[in-house]
Amino acid sequence: MSINSFGHLFRVTTWGESHGPALGATVDGCPPGVAIDEATLQHWLDKRKPGQNKFTTQRREADAVKILSGVFEGQTTGTPVQLMIENTDQRSKDYSEIKDKFRPGHADITYFQKYGIRDYRGGGRSSARETAARVAAGGLARAAIASLVAGVEITGYMVQMGPHKIDRDRFDWDEIVRNPFWVPDARAADEWASYLDGLRKSGSSVGAVIEVVARGVPAGLGAPVYGKLDTDLAAAMMSINAVKGVEIGEGMSAAMLTGELNADEITMGPDGPVYSSNHAGGILGGISTGQDIVLRFAVKPTSSILTARRTITKTGEETEIVTKGRHDPCVGIRAVPVGEAMMACVLLDHLLLHRGQVGENRGHIGESPA
Amino acid sequence: MSINSFGHLFRVTTWGESHGPALGATVDGCPPGVAIDEATLQHWLDKRKPGQNKFTTQRREADAVKILSGVFEGQTTGTPVQLMIENTDQRSKDYSEIKDKFRPGHADITYFQKYGIRDYRGGGRSSARETAARVAAGGLARAAIASLVAGVEITGYMVQMGPHKIDRDRFDWDEIVRNPFWVPDARAADEWASYLDGLRKSGSSVGAVIEVVARGVPAGLGAPVYGKLDTDLAAAMMSINAVKGVEIGEGMSAAMLTGELNADEITMGPDGPVYSSNHAGGILGGISTGQDIVLRFAVKPTSSILTARRTITKTGEETEIVTKGRHDPCVGIRAVPVGEAMMACVLLDHLLLHRGQVGENRGHIGESPA
Amino acid sequence: MSINSFGHLFRVTTWGESHGPALGATVDGCPPGVAIDEATLQHWLDKRKPGQNKFTTQRREADAVKILSGVFEGQTTGTPVQLMIENTDQRSKDYSEIKDKFRPGHADITYFQKYGIRDYRGGGRSSARETAARVAAGGLARAAIASLVAGVEITGYMVQMGPHKIDRDRFDWDEIVRNPFWVPDARAADEWASYLDGLRKSGSSVGAVIEVVARGVPAGLGAPVYGKLDTDLAAAMMSINAVKGVEIGEGMSAAMLTGELNADEITMGPDGPVYSSNHAGGILGGISTGQDIVLRFAVKPTSSILTARRTITKTGEETEIVTKGRHDPCVGIRAVPVGEAMMACVLLDHLLLHRGQVGENRGHIGESPA
Amino acid sequence: MSINSFGHLFRVTTWGESHGPALGATVDGCPPGVAIDEATLQHWLDKRKPGQNKFTTQRREADAVKILSGVFEGQTTGTPVQLMIENTDQRSKDYSEIKDKFRPGHADITYFQKYGIRDYRGGGRSSARETAARVAAGGLARAAIASLVAGVEITGYMVQMGPHKIDRDRFDWDEIVRNPFWVPDARAADEWASYLDGLRKSGSSVGAVIEVVARGVPAGLGAPVYGKLDTDLAAAMMSINAVKGVEIGEGMSAAMLTGELNADEITMGPDGPVYSSNHAGGILGGISTGQDIVLRFAVKPTSSILTARRTITKTGEETEIVTKGRHDPCVGIRAVPVGEAMMACVLLDHLLLHRGQVGENRGHIGESPA
């Protein structure tokens, strides 16, 4: 039940502070026999590494992941896997001036009120760096998924930056890895580059919407009501730092549809049911249909901006705060691999749960009963 | 860890099918000494009862809740409380024609694929009636919250029906209980009445957005990262039947904001910190700030409509389906008390978790250290 | 995580008080497609029913179990199964005199200290009647086990009553159901009948040791360290009312053995490994070996005896207490089917966990690697 | 729910293999504001360190614990604490000869059957070294308990080695730390020294019984039925490597008592209830009474002995095995601090659970109702 853990059978507990000696993830329940090594996990972390371009945090760090347990002769043993990333670039002095002030929009004030103690260096645990551990865990989850089911692909990309949305008609999967924003629309990539450059120079920041799609997921994952696949996905995405909304399929727009427009009609194909559309986002009644699972989450803008904001100190004095140093004009960019990692962790968890609860799907449409 | 349970210390497991003998909720972890009786719980259920007006399901039922355990001499004992609601009005024959067809947009097909067995009568467990159990559990949670903290108020209301949104400038708390939609805008109530009447006559249906506000919640609830208050709230709302999106505070719109516009500045008041705005929706870093907790969730339209839809049978034959009988033109209306109930359950759970984990808030702003 | 629930994937939450309207078990995670009905569960409950003989409580009750959910057309659906047993024979007046006194050896005093409220009628929830719900859940578990693995047999029997132990040389499986004590030793059955008769007449009571054996359990169940099969079995048995000790295999006597005597040597048979002995009780490193799983638990004597005992009242006054009315001279007799039920619940849970975590055993001794 | 985690609110997940790079414990849910540092934890580890005397494993290692997260400026922050112990002395070659044979009495065979992969070096995860992580976690738990409740003392000691038991009449608390066996009986210490020396020379091994007492524990800890304090204690002790039996209070001997002899009578003292005896071991109905909590667990003899034993290889060939190198003639000695650590972890967990569930005890005997 641990409050800092996530998952049921595939369980991830992240630990570590932004400016502590290290951070990591204790991953329990990974199925045995999964081939994994540090290089594979590093690949996923590098996707997230800041400093790749001028749009993300200027902070340089190695982000080198080590596997401390749970892997023997290149395979998981089924025992807990400890992933550790040492913090090598901390520059604590950037934050020392503001150790008694609460940054608006950050968890500084709520952490202090709750715990009476706050690691003020770089946001402590609530910092976006905590997500490095999640990305590492997600890399392990991806490998495990591949060992269980062939053909599952998880892809995340930005669909909105500030007020700017992509043009779905120009959607190009291949474009995603060609620009610094993981946006599947080449024109948007150009426009957003200028836009964000302007924001960065003015010390401002903006939010974003990230969409994550999982293709090739078998039908049947998720258990009714509270163990729903979409429930766990919503929780996973909402747990990412700075996320304020989550949608599955049509999402908030589902409210606007009528029943006729919303229903995904069903016909029969050679391999099973075929759906005429995917308003449901691949999940019906909390269980995967076999269609693409489509979700989106919104990330609010970074609060560490160079404009002075009114706030108070620990002792209740009113003051102003200006956060200098490194900051992200759009944390949404970094959230793309994190969203993918969470999708991977939840899907793996549900693949194991499904196998445990029912073994394999028991209802075969079109076949005579066993 | 049960997949059909919800909560950590205050844990609710719902059980029962729409057309089974009964349904209910096993509520575990309710603090002892809470004054509760069946009449109090019934009040919350009656708020949900269909047949109140012609806009909700025509199905008549008593929805009478019984307390079978966990209460002695009018107080909770701290042991599991079993709440049961017997099904008295079922009219199974309404559905018998379609027992081999999968209704598009429903969990019929996914349940069958996963379990190989499906209670086709009225949607079985995925039916909206399962929420009666949640509303009963929510009634108990409200009573428990009141025994722990004075002044917490939980109110839900509709802010959108189909394409129609309320006018926030006409927002009137008192209007909520005066119309059949729980909408805080008298003019919208009139407009929506006509709109929905038209939909009902044509056999169509529409979605909705419900907003739930919790006032008077103390700061400090929620634990960092995965045990965040917003994570549990998101999961709770997403678990409601037909929900496709969840937002906290600005929600999906947070993406559009710049850092300056999004930050809720902090000043000092006589009783503690005062926020200039509430874009955060009352939660920062997963922990409550003491501000109003504001969330919204979107409900997709009912799929049981009187228009024929293409689908397949269990044996894979293509066919059409028309669901006659009773249906909701807008299930969103019924989701309002359910959203309130889930808010109550999650808040109680976090009040207990907070008390267990830290006792009481340890950081007092403005006071000299203890 | 619920504190009143048990199990991981197959999860049982019992509810209900001895003198409340009903008691029962919410069973979540039962695999779908298991054939079950009330008569089958009733069989297991009848094994437990008091009044069968003069040695158990004189309390007469129907103990009729009802299935309120989770079963459709004779099969489990995979959704929560609600089992309910209504209390029909309560005779509250037996206890009313002592509602302000704490019975020594009972949970009366600790319940009151913790909760400030105590259902004094018949021991409330801590009463042995709560185990009726467990036995019902165990009946469901047995059916589910049979649907997963053929040939698993779970048998419990008494091996000690007070100071009297069975003679292992006279062990006879068939004798177990032929006497009122479920003791596999006909001579012991005779001796114990006289012994217990004497105790009953004098209003005294005595403890017992129950042994439960599970045969035909496949190797591989249990996860290392905390998710060990013996860990869960120990917890399950210790949770039974009045249990004070649990042993696996050699149990406490393992301390006396030397390494040579304790080691179960391994040879190879046609179907796999063969062990020369079973000091381990069928579990090595927390994982089943495929041998008989053998455990024992000790039940302390009933504290409700007809001799006056010194105690205090709720207001702290010293007094004496004599419990009249119905009582068990040896609750151990009733614990036999409960021990079997707990064994069944834990084994089913681990069969599902095993399937979820690894699928099926991956290491095949004697075969060339896959 | 993680299978390798332990606890509800204070949750410990151990990780790491005997011969991997490191091992450790992820401790989640430690209350904030607890003063802790590496030296304090090291104290508890040193108590466990092998090589202290010739009776424990000859393996030398630093066993230096590092705190990687969750502590800031000398206090816990309430976030996960990562404790890591690097493996510095491994001598893998000791085991390489036997990498394809299963040591009788070890988890080698069951691990292989379940996972198909086995870290054969030194017993991998099932090795007793895994308990170093538990002892470190226990050190943190002790500090947290002290911050919550004054006066709780947890002490473990041996009461039996092989067939030799201590003489309770010679019980001396001060003797415990003066001999290499933590036995509270000076004469037994002498006798056992000779006895064990003989065993060691012959390459044999023997089991032990360890008793752990917790004094000063407030009444009210534990929740009814499955969340019982004794249930969690039993699970905790049974999870220790090589444990085969657990007892609370009278334990297995409770079976032999009559009701009159077993009942702990109650009188009233200046500070509350006073019990005439403690057959219950400090727990009634799963809830602590305020008396000393007394438990015992039995450890089976080490299976790594210098005598040849019959076994099989991974490929099913019959063979013999002789384990040379380092081994423990009595692992029970090392289990003493582990038992203490588990007691500390469970008690802290229940202190937090109690606070979360009920706040503080609500029933005050002798006082007028609030």
UniProtKB/TrEMBL annotation, chains A, B, C, D:
Name of this protein: Chorismate synthase
Entry note: cofactor: Reduced FMN (FMNH(2)).
PANTHER family associated with the record: CHORISMATE SYNTHASE
Pathway note: Metabolic intermediate biosynthesis; chorismate biosynthesis; chorismate from D-erythrose 4-phosphate and phosphoenolpyruvate: step 7/7
EC code(s) of this entry: 4.2.3.5
Keywords, ordered alphabetically: Amino-acid biosynthesis, Aromatic amino acid biosynthesis, FAD, Flavoprotein, FMN, Lyase, NADP
UniProt keyword rRNA-binding present: no
Ligand binding (NADP(+)): R48, K54
Residue positions binding FMN: R125, S126, S127, N241, A242, G285, K300, P301, T302, S303, S304, R326
Catalytic activity, reaction form: 5-O-(1-carboxyvinyl)-3-phosphoshikimate = chorismate + phosphate
Ranges that cross the membrane: none
InterPro entries to which the protein is assigned, alphabetical: Chorismate_synth (IPR000453), Chorismate_synth_AroC_sf (IPR035904), Chorismate_synthase_CS (IPR020541)
Source superkingdom: Bacteria
Any Pfam family the entry gives: Chorismate_synt
Subunit relationships: Homotetramer.
Essential cofactor(s): FMNH2
Record carries keyword Amino-acid biosynthesis: yes
Family of the protein in this entry: Belongs to the chorismate synthase family.
GO molecular function, one term: chorismate synthase activity
UniProt organism field: Roseobacter sinensis
The protein's role, per its UniProt record: This reaction introduces a second double bond into the aromatic ring system.
